[in-house]
Specification:
Elements lengths: L12 H9 L1 H12 L9 H13 L5 E3 L5 E5 L6 E7 L13 E3 L2 E3 L3 H20 L8 E7 L9 H10 L3 E7 L5 E6 L1 E10 L3 E2 L9 H12 L8 E10 L5 E2 L2 E10 L2 H19 L4 E10 L7 H19 L4 E5 L4 H5 L4 E4 L4 E2 L7 E3 L3 H13 L4
Parallel strand pairs: 3-6, 3-7, 7-16, 8-15
Antiparallel strand pairs: 1-2, 2-6, 4-5, 5-18, 9-13, 9-14, 10-12, 11-13, 17-18
Helix pairs in contact: 1-10, 2-4, 4-10, 6-7, 8-10
């Protein structure tokens, strides 16, 4: 990829032959890696697997940082760098081997698409660059298998990379999309745990005492009175409380979040949430609020530079999947660099379904074109 934005798309014959000849090996890597449990904040086993795999592939500068990111540095990385990232964590809490089976042209496993397939596409492409001793075209390149993208992982891995390299990052790619959906706009979010406590008591002898569940239900109803701005959502996803059917509930918790792709809408939702909290605190109940996670919206990005990245990704998707990509707003590892004005794009590299469910699957016939896409874009950053 030339500095002026010239795009040298399409793989060379040698590159294409490598992708095709290693197809079965890539599928074997995928089925091995997918079984390794990696709940957010417990990605150690996958991180160690990926580090060791890269070392066997010939990488010389690989380390695991304090956030359990696997970082592979190619070329001089003391100055400007380009980042290619795929997250290792999955939404499932399993600590034992994840169940996997293959049927009807599908590989089925929790987390197989989101995001194990993306990791494999990136690892296989990087190995080619290492074996061929390719040099970065303009800047150093960071290959990152990062932690903490999902849920309460709160983008821990991406934040760590920005902490260590943020002032030097020129382009940032996350590989974490499916069915042609590529993210170029960051959807911000804030997540809270709300705990409400009352005196409670026996359901008959203390009848009339305040019920924590009833108060929380009323508060939730108040939260749901707002008409959100365009591009904004909110949700109470969990509520837990009470002791037994004959006990006036003394304590209850809920998990609440709101999301938007515009900062002014985020602040409007925050103001509504704060007003609800203030109102119920005046009712002389104990109400505690804990911020569990915060993801920022897009900042002041060089749109012309980001458009170059989008054009390249769209052309690659058209070349290998036969249709144009869809550029969407979402919450990904790109939130952090986008919030700091760094041109960023989240790539899609497979077709499948059932994301975030135990029935998740990828279509086997989409894996080869997806690996070609990732290979193509990455190779544009090498001489």
């Amino acid at each position: 990829m030339a500095e002026k934005g010239d795009i040298n798309m399409a793989l060379s014959k040698k590159m294409a032959d490598y992708v095709c000849s290693t197809d079965q090996e890539a599928i074997e890597l995928l089925t091995t890696l997918a079984k390794i449990p990696a709940p957010s904040n417990h990605e150690e086993k996958r991180a160690e697997f990926c580090r060791d795999w890269l070392l066997r592939a010939g990488a010389e500068d690989v380390y695991i940082d304090d956030a359990w990111n696997v970082v592979c540095r190619l070329g001089p990385c003391s100055g400007e760098v380009d980042v290619f990232m795929a997250h290792s964590d999955v939404v499932f809490p399993d600590l034992d081997e994840l169940p996997l089976h293959i049927e009807d042209g599908r590989i089925c496993c929790p987390g197989i698409g989101d995001n194990t397939t993306s990791i494999v596409a990136l690892l296989m492409a990087v190995r080619y660059a290492i074996r061929e001793q390719l040099r970065p075209r303009m800047r150093g390149i960071l290959i990152v298998i990062n932690s903490g993208e999902e849920g309460l992982g709160n983008l821990k891995g991406s934040r760590k990379i920005m902490e260590d390299y943020g002032d030097h990052i020129h382009h940032f790619y996350a590989i974490d999309g499916w069915n042609g959906n590529m993210t170029n706009i960051a959807v911000g979010s804030r997540r809270f745990r709300v705990t409400l406590e009352t005196e409670g008591g026996h359901s008959y002898n203390a009848f009339g005492n305040r019920n924590a569940i009833a108060y929380m239900a009323s508060m939730i109803d108040a939260l749901y009175t707002i008409k959100p701005p365009v591009g904004t959502s909110y949700n109470v996803g969990v509520i837990q409380g009470g002791t037994s059917v004959n006990t006036i509930a003394q304590s209850v918790q809920m998990l609440y979040e709101f999301r938007s792709d515009r900062m002014e809408a985020m602040e409007q939702m925050q103001a509504h949430f704060d007003a609800c909290v203030s109102f119920y605190r005046q009712k002389d109940v104990r109400l505690e609020v804990e911020l569990l996670g915060e993801r920022p919206c897009t900042g002041d990005v060089d749109t012309a530079e980001q458009q170059k990245m989008m054009d390249m990704a769209n052309q690659a998707y058209l070349d290998y999947f036969g249709r144009e990509a869809r550029f969407v707003a979402s919450s990904t590892d790109c939130n952090i660099p986008l919030s700091r004005g760094i041109p960023s794009l989240c790539l899609a590299c497979y077709n499948g379904g059932g994301a975030h469910s135990r029935e998740e699957y990828v279509l086997i016939d989409s894996l080869l074109p997806g690996r070609k896409l990732v290979m193509d874009i990455l190779m544009n950053y090498f001489a």
